[in-house]
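Hello again,

I reread your note about wanting to compare the complex against the isolated chains. To keep things tidy I'm splitting this into two emails, and this first one only covers the full assembly. Below are the input lines as submitted, including protein chains and any nucleic acid or small-molecule components. They are followed by the predicted structure of everything together. The single-chain runs will come separately.
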Amino acid sequence: MTDASSTQIVAPVAVAAELRARRASRNRRSAILKHIFLIAASFIMIYPLLWMIASSLKPDNQIFGDLGLIPTDPQWSNYSEGWNALSVSFTQFFWNSGVVTVLSVIGNVLSCSFAAYAFARLEFNGKNIWFALMMMTLMIPYHVVLIPQYLTFLQLGWVNTYLPLVVPRFLATDAFFIFLMIQFFRQLPRELDEAAMIDGCSPFKIYWAIILPLSLPAMTTAAIFSFIWTWEDFLGPLVYLNDIKDYTVPLALRMFLSQDSVSEYGQMFAMSVLSILPIILFFVVFQRFIIRGIAMSGMK
Amino acid sequence: MEKFLRKNAPAYVFLAPWLVGFFLLSIFPILASLYLSFTEYDVVQPPEWIGLENYQYMFEFDYRFWKSLQVTFTFVVVSVPLKLAFALAVAMLLDKGIRAVGWYRALFYLPSILGGSIAVAILWRQLFDYNGVINSVLRFFGGDGPYWLSDPRYSLWTLVVLAVWQFGSPMLIFLAGLRAIPQDLYEAAEIDAASPMRKFFAITVPLLAPVIFFNLVLQMIEAFKSFSGAFIISGGSGAPLDSLLFFTVYLFNEAFSFFRMGYASALGWVLLVIIAAFTAIAFWTSKYWVHYENERG
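Full-complex prediction:
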């Protein structure tokens, strides 16, 4: 009697445990399969980049048709020779890119946070109309405004200087960043502004002493993307810079392609690797910010 | 009056840089490009009004215009859905409590962030060279690869592959969207013994529709505007046989190689209208397949 009742109780428990164990092992098996698939897929994804790095260390005659990722006889000279392969050295190109990029980042973060603060935290007449117009500029392709902008800058005598690349950044032309910051500023509690106002703070003081320090994640995200996009920008420098001494790194890289002697692939890859190195470093250091920023705003 | 000023002055001070930029670098250039599109202008001589001639020529005689439209449309129609399909598939694999998810996310996203760089465009040229890596892999499996870049039948596909390779950013947005779907819906479906297929179409797709729509519009606009990759891989001209003559490449060459600024402005306006029309169509059709949570009932 006691036996029967105990087996009656034990049996479903045992069955449940058995089922759970089976499901766990099935889950484990599918997790392992998933990982194998994901590792293979990640490898395919980054293989082209690894191949570029490997090729930057190979002698020219070993680059083509060689799938291998480990150079047998690393040619470090590709780097030193590539650095000076063009009529102007890459020291100059990196310096140029650096100047344009740093100024652009400062301009973007400052001017866009100004506009975003007004839209997110201040009341004023015409706010809705301006906001709608600002959002519409997100859709305008750069190619439409490019020609009149070029003609204007030509009239001003700014072509062949960095002004056409930098000045627009101080005028909040990247509505993406304004939008990103508005989203962030709106999450901050309104009571902060009100308390500060009662204490006699001006709107500027509130922006500077309260909103900005609390918005470091949004500012960092905007700064990182601004850095990457300016560093990679090709069309702007292509249109505005004609003197090789003023070239940014992407324009310099392109010169490897237009050179007659097409044998220096190793050097070309070496400089390609160096050109994306700052972006990779940024990516490694700020990965969290970048990934959160994109999930938040849908930026490129 | 004083009250009006006190209320508005600070906001407009903060808005000032944007307002200047908006008028000088957006509104004015757009109107100017509309005006220029009705002129013939080579930068040296002052613009000469020719009415609709640019547009007339474009639509009636300019076979390169039609070619560039065809190339761009093909690129958009093929690359965007493929990219989104990859993005969604990988996002779903990464979704449910998988280990090391941060690593995978980062590795899959890295190509997106390098996507616009000239280094990657140069790399692509070498990968798809006749003696390049892609053909070496094909040969390993016994196939014989074509001349990807010099054969106009294949050249556009190299750029499609480049675009699809950069599925990381829509993937991250899909991941954020998938996280927002309540898990108990899936558990309820499991109790009803729903197949994975059914769960995908009955739960994932409808609940993710706003995110799919967002990604679709964003990637479509990006694809219409893409420039650097096609420019570098085609050597700046849209070669071979105009098979890489993206609309933006054609526009750039008309403006800055041949200094036909009026004609290029007309091209720019056509691009603006095309993007606006496609976005409008997307928004209009979205009524039928995108439902937002708070709109229901």
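For quick reference: Chain B is about 75% helix and 0% strand.

B.
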